[in-house]
Amino acid sequence: MSNTRLVRQIRNASQLPTPALAISKLVLCVMPIAEIVIGAIHLNDCPRKHLIPIYLIVLGAFALVLVVLSCLPCAQEPEDSPTNPLSRLCATWNSLISLFLFCWFICGNVWIYSIYKPNFNKETTATDPYCDRTLYLFAFWVTTLVYILFGVFLVGSCLVLICFYLCGRADADDDV
C-alpha cells in the first residue's frame, strides 16, 4: 500500500459545505457570548477578585472577533495564487489577537486559581470578601475546560502519530 495516495487525498480534501461551516461558526460563538453575558451580569459581584468578570468579558469579546475574522473573505487563502496584502493583514490580526488571548488566558488563570475556593456567601460578615458562585464556577470551568481539551488534543495527536508510525511506514520505493 502506498502512502503517497493517502497524502494526496489529505491535501485534496474538500472543504465542508457552506451550511456546515455556518453552523460550526455559530456553535463557536455560543461560549464567547455566554462569557460576555455572565461577565456583564456579575460585573460587580466578585469583590474578592474584581478582574474575573472583566476577564470573561474581554475573553468572550476577543474570541468573537477571532471567529468573525475567520469568516471574512480575506482570511481564506487562494490555493494557487500569490498572497495578497489583505490576506497578510488578516493573518497578522489573527496572530495578534491569538497572542493577546493566550496572554489574557494566563492572566485569567492567575486570577481564578489564586482565590480557589472563594467565599460564595454574599451575606457573611467575615473579613474575607465573596465572589458570586455562578460567576466564579463558570470562569473556573471555562478555564479548566481549555486544559481538558488541550490534554485530549495532545493524547489524540500522540495516538495518531503512533498509528501513522505503526501502520503507515513508507516503503523505500515510495516518493513521500
Question: Which stretches are poorly predicted, pLDDT < 50 over at least 5 residues?
Answer: none
Global geometry:
globular
Sketch the major β-sheet.
none
Order of helices and strands: HHHHH
What report would you give on this structure?
The chain has 176 residues and is mainly alpha-helical. It has helices at 3-11, 18-41, 51-71, 85-113, 133-167. The two termini are 13 Å apart.
Short note summarizing the structure:
The chain has 176 residues and is mostly helical. 67% of the residues lie in helices and 0% in strands. It has helices spanning 3-11, 18-41, 51-71, 85-113, 133-167.
Which terms would index this structure?
5 helices; 176 residues; mainly alpha
Topology of helices and strands:
Elements: H1 3-11, H2 18-41, H3 51-71, H4 85-113, H5 133-167
